[in-house]
Amino acid sequence: MLNRRKFLQYTAFTSAMLSVKNSAAAALLPTKSTLVANLPVVISTWDFGIAANQAAWKILSIGGRALDAVEQGVWVPEADVKNQTVGYGGLPDRDGRVTLDACIMDEFGNCGSVAALEHIMHPISVARKVMENTPHVMLAGDGALQFALENGFKKINLLTPEAEKAWKEWLVTAKYSPVMNIENKSYGKAAPQRLPGNQYNHDTIGMLALDAKGNLSGACTTSGMAYKLHGRIGDSPIIGAGLFVDNEIGGATSTGVGEEVIRNVGSFLVVELMRQGYPPEEACKEAVMRIIKKKPQTAKEIQVGFLALNKKGEYGAYAIQKGFSFAVCNQQKQDILIPGKSYY
Ligand code: ASP
Predict the structure, then answer these.
(1) Which of 52, 86, 217, 279 fits 73 for a cystine, CB–CB 3.0-4.6 Å?
(2) Which residues line ligand 1 (CB under 6 A)?
(3) How many CB atoms are located within 10 Å of the residue 304 CB?
(4) Which DSSP string do the residues of 34-53 spell out, in sequence order?
(5) At what residues does the UniProt record annotate the site feature described as Cleavage (predicted)?
(6) Shortest-distance Cα residue to atom 5 of ligand 1
(7) Gap from CA of 224 to ligand 1 centroid (Å)
(8) What are the pLDDT digits (tens) for 315-325?
(9) How wide is the angle at C-alpha 329 spanned by C-alphas 328 and 331, nearest 5°?
(10) Residues with pLDDT less than 50, the chain
């Protein structure tokens, strides 16, 4: 027998189905691409998500809260000196400054964010403190740094010798102007093969977790687009763009050229599509299609990928370009990397 809640969910789903009947969207509901994991589960963008998921799993597997899992999970790439797109070791902006963007969201719809934060190893934890200890959602630049230092975070130099060398090599040919999607292009000896999705082109970590109690949280953290203009903020710290979580429905996160994600409020869109009944992969695909439809020429040159997890533990991803992958960790499939489907 259906209880009231299930009945309401069921009728909401069937009326959503009816409302999209005869439309293109009807063909998307539901499909074989649905991947289901039992609780708890954690998923993350890119192959560095494997190590991050393992850290998150330590918390989830003992009944811990998804919020703690995502925070501690993304600490791994944030602290990884070899990872040139997240946290410490990240490539700097055009002026040689490493500026970090991060946000976090819990099962109650609380959220916190920092943008263009310098000198702090774990921006995600500063974002969590903004969420929990202030009446605000977002702090940026010097104010975010001041808040971090007042809350006991240590000031460090985030620019490693390797990242500095890569920046100086870039300066030689780049004529001091930022290039869209530079991460995907060859430049300098420090990172000779930056093709979409290869080992040098790992971008933001976006992580979504569903804990044993069935609660969702998400985290997103990055050093942003390499050699961006100083002060540029991407999608990653923007709630609804780089990350969105609705504990009734699911969560979504993004990676790639943040400007296109912001223009389409990408992660919010994915969650709202899931609310209408789209399975996670199809919701991600539809969000990607919006980007392609609005700017077909730009889309040929850039990468954007979305990753989504719904309340039932179903997950999926979709990207513009080949090469996007995501990591999944749960009881059955611990630590697997799944190639994301793509338009091109
Ligand atoms: N989305 C990030 C940004 O635009 C970077 C990335 O994932 O490549 O800042």
Answers:
(1) 52
(2) 183, 203-204, 222, 224-225, 234-236, 255-258
(3) 28
(4) -EE-PSSEEEEESTTHHHHH
(5) 203-204
(6) 224
(7) 5
(8) 999 999 998 99
(9) 135
(10) 1-32, 186-201
